[in-house]
Batch of 3 targets.
Target 1
Amino acid sequence: MNQPKFFVTPGYGEYMLNELHYSQAVKIGDRVETSGQGGWDDDLQIPESLA
């Protein structure tokens, strides 16, 4: 059985992992599951093009 591998993006993703034990994605074998992803940047701002 494959072991899960957890992934986070630099910046906010690392903060969420360290503070809340939250991972943005998990990979098991050839399957990837993502959790709800916002359209924010590293400064937690949502670009005007997405607003």
Target 2
Amino acid sequence: MKTALYASCILLLGIITICCDDSQSHASILLVKAEQLMNDHPDKAMVLIDSILYPERSFNDEDYMRYCVVRVQARYKNYLPINEDTLIFKARDYFTMRAKKNELAALASFYSGCVYREQGNLNQAMLNYKDAGTFAALTNDTALKGLIMYNTGELLSEHGLYAKALYNYQQAKNFYGQFPEDMKNQQTHCFSAIGQMFMLLGEQDSAFIYFFRGLEIAESINDRQLQSLLAQNLSVAYSETNQNKEAGEFLHRSIRLSLNDNDLPHYYLNLSKLYRDTGQLDSLAFFINKLKQTVDTSTDLYFKASAYNLLAGDAKTNHRYEMAFDYQQKRNEIVEKINEERFQQSIYEVQQKYDYIKQRNLYDLLLLQRQRIIIIILSLFLLLSLLSVFLLRQVVRQKNQMISLQNAMQTLNKTTNDLQKRETSVSRHEKQLRETLLWKFNVLLKSFLLKSELEPFEMMDTKITMAKFEEIVYGKNNRSLWNSLVEIIDELYPGLSHFIRNSYPQFSDTELKVCLLSYAGLPSKIIAPLINQSVNTVNMSRTRIRQKMGLQKPGADFCLFLKHLYDKNRGLRVLKHLN
């Protein structure tokens, strides 16, 4: 039972989810189609928008905010009241602060300004128009830029800032002019508004140029309402220049082309002025009565002020002074009300404040960027300076090292040359000395051998002869033969006997003699008679020498090992002497 209940709940939840997804998908399609139809067919777009049921449930957050913008846009383009559409403010905050989508932010800000304008909060309207212009400047939508500039111009003109309004209208015309074939309707409105500003600024010639240019475009697109508007503007312009005939022609032309009954009070006013100026009193009386019937129902303060002024003048002309006073008082009340609204909501001050804040923010941004650039440049300069100092120190250090190295090389070269010269001289001297010592050593050796050979002879003459020979060879007070041999060997190999005695104090006297004479290159049979030992004793001594020197290999050449130690010791002594 529980399993079936769970399955039913899951199935129901799936059906609801699918239905919700379908509803959301359908609403999104309607919203996209409404956006596509908005510019050319705003009435159809309005129908699509109204067909979306429960929009707050049918969209995600962003699409719902988009829906709020499109809904106000559709109502505005269909001339429906939007003063209660305050959800547009949430959409504005969403797209300007969270979503960061410039085109939607511009649209939301613009239509927020339109809502404020209908509510009578003109200060906020101007601020939102300015914000819309800022966001629109970040897009490529020239039509949106033109729309914002045109409505800003309207707001300025309503407060008597005709020169500034003229600038905005001209900017709007330039934006629309980038697509002359697609935006002729908007261009015509711009030409009409620019002509009106020139009229109010007293530049009638420029006004006529723009009115006729606008009428030409309106005729090219066969727009009766725009033709009526331009014809009415030309009628007023001709009336202001006292060209009543032309003024009448264009006024009647405007009436014939008009499709809007709401314009009738304005026509009654203009016709009354025309017939007053032309002296057609019957027609004047007829339209004066029409004007009296409609003036109180109008909400246009400027129209009512102009109408009451005309009615006061007509009553005064007909000597109805009490009625004239009453109309004049109503006119004064209207003018005072207009001035109060202008004073309370100074669009000029709002615009100046906004421009000042914008310029100040721009200045602060530029100053910050400039300071950032300066800091970066200074940091780079400091870094380059430190790097230069480091590299310079390295170069100086390397240069000093090179100089020291060159000096050392020069010193070494000089020392090497001196040593080479000295070595050459010493080598030559040593060679001569060595040859002399070798000769002396051979003489001693041969004399000893000669003596050994003659010892068996007992003849007195032989002994006398040998004594005489020894005196000649060794000197009169001669030392022993062994000492002479050691002295000669030490001269051939400086300090050899002393080195062997110090290095191997464990050698016996016989072993020391055998080692020294073996190093001198003498064989065993010659060493034996020199030390009064047998050849076998000499060989045994050599064996013991190897053992005491640590040479384990039988028959090892201890002389070669001793030469290695002797040369190493002599080299160390030379280095120590040089240091």
Target 3
Amino acid sequence: MKGFQYITCPELRKGPLIKVQTGYMKICHIVSNKCLAVTTTENKSEVHILLINEDKVDIAERISLGHHNVSIAATPINFVVVDGNENKMVFYSTCGEELFQKYLPFYGYPHHIYSDNVYFYVLFRRNSILRCYDLYGQMKWQWELPFPVHPHIAVFQGTLYVPDTQLNRVLLYKYQDRSSGCLLPIKNPYIRNLNLRLKEKENDQKLVIGEICNLSNGQLVVSDINHDCLLYISEEGDIVSRLSLPSTATDICRWDSNHIGVTLPLQKQLRVIGNLSKTVRSVKLRQPYVQVCKMGECEIVCYCDKPSHLDILAINYYNQVEVIKTINIPVFVKSLSIDKKTEKLLIVTREKLFSTTLE
């Protein structure tokens, strides 16, 4: 019988067995109940975006592949299909639209790709090389491993977990940058560290911080993309409030002195939330925007990554929007903000910072 089954951690309890009609050879989690899987049934090689419910599995999107020599990994923001035949990484949005491609250096064919919600790790098993990429396809580091790589490993935030089958143990290796030949003392650029203080029952929960926003009262708001929630943090590092979200927030912006704007692309929604974690306004958007910036009382500028463009929207009294202007952007935008002095829009891409007027 073909099916999916949840296993909860750390108790390792079995969940219900859900029947499926398709045989899947690889699967990984994207966000919430959304998963990614590879199938090669009926002489077809496809990637499926799945919505897994308690009693059924729905196929939300299908992506055709030319062959089955692929590996997959996902984050709540995007996912990657590694094409072993063409030696490249293909980045997709969580809705299944292709964003861009990144060709890999040839160290033998890529064996597998892993993800820890923040980075992608590509393993070249033949040469024992591990390469780390961020969500935008930029390489962060490369590591030539000092040992032959076991076919089943795990990677999390630069730490490599390798099973030792002879002595029945797991070995942990931590990446360190020694490319310069020596380790030089580097001045710490941070003014201070803010240690997040979790309650005792929360100490075993891993926070993956996606976005950060400063409030006028000195608090911070951070989005935890591992649990789809907002955390309100005091100046001392205590979590004073928590707000659950229906999906991953891709952007947090200052709305005014007492409110923030939270972008939810899966819901096609902008939520205006007060300092006490209460939603005071929900604006329905027509597209799955990933970045939103407030221009005036009733105008916002939004960025959509598929295809890449900016929309200037007017918000009416019924929280509906109307497109005033569309600007095509040929590059991937990482963040948007308004310069209060010049009232110009600041656009941050992978390599450059642009300043422009929107008249």
